Amino acid sequence: MTTQINTCNGCPARWSGLNTAHCAGCHVTFTGPSAFDRHRVKSTCATPAEIGLKSADRAYPCFGYPMRDDALSFFDGLGIAG
């Protein structure tokens, strides 16, 4: 299986992921539509920090909702490195 790499015509951003969303206005990439929608405040782009989004620690700059502590312990129990 091949990974699709998406690009933006207005900036050098590159990303992958079926739900990943990139804003053509401010050129920030988000983990999904809900994080993207949240960054639009009164028809203006808010920075990820302004709305509580955190780095998703992907291979490319991408922001999303912070992981809850109980979810982190679940992933720790799976024995997979993040």
Largest sheet: 2 strands, antiparallel
| Physical arrangement of strands within the biggest beta sheet | 1-2
Low-confidence spans: pLDDT under 50, at least 5 residues? none
Q: Roughly how many Å apart are the termini? A: 22 Å
Number of helices: 2
How much helix, percentage-wise, in residues? 10-25%
Class of secondary structure makeup: alpha+beta
Computed Rg: 14 Å
Overall outline: globular
SSE order: EEEEHEEEEH
Mean pLDDT across all amino acids: 86
Strand content bin: 15-25%
> Count of DSSP E strands?
8
Topology:
Layout: E1 6-7, E2 14-15, E3 21-22, E4 29-30, H1 33-39, E5 40-41, E6 44-45, E7 54-55, E8 63-64, H2 69-78
Antiparallel strand pairs: 1-2, 3-4, 5-6, 7-8
Quick synopsis:
The chain is an alpha+beta fold. The chain has helices at 33-39, 69-78, and strands at 6-7, 14-15, 21-22, 29-30, 40-41, 44-45, 54-55, 63-64.
How would you describe this structure to a colleague?
This protein is of the alpha+beta class and 82 residues long. The protein is built from two helices and eight strands, in the order E-E-E-E-H-E-E-E-E-H. It has a two-stranded antiparallel ribbon. Strand 1 and strand 2 form a beta hairpin. The longest helix has 10 residues, at 69-78. It is globular and about 40 Å long. The model has no long low-confidence stretch (mean pLDDT 86).
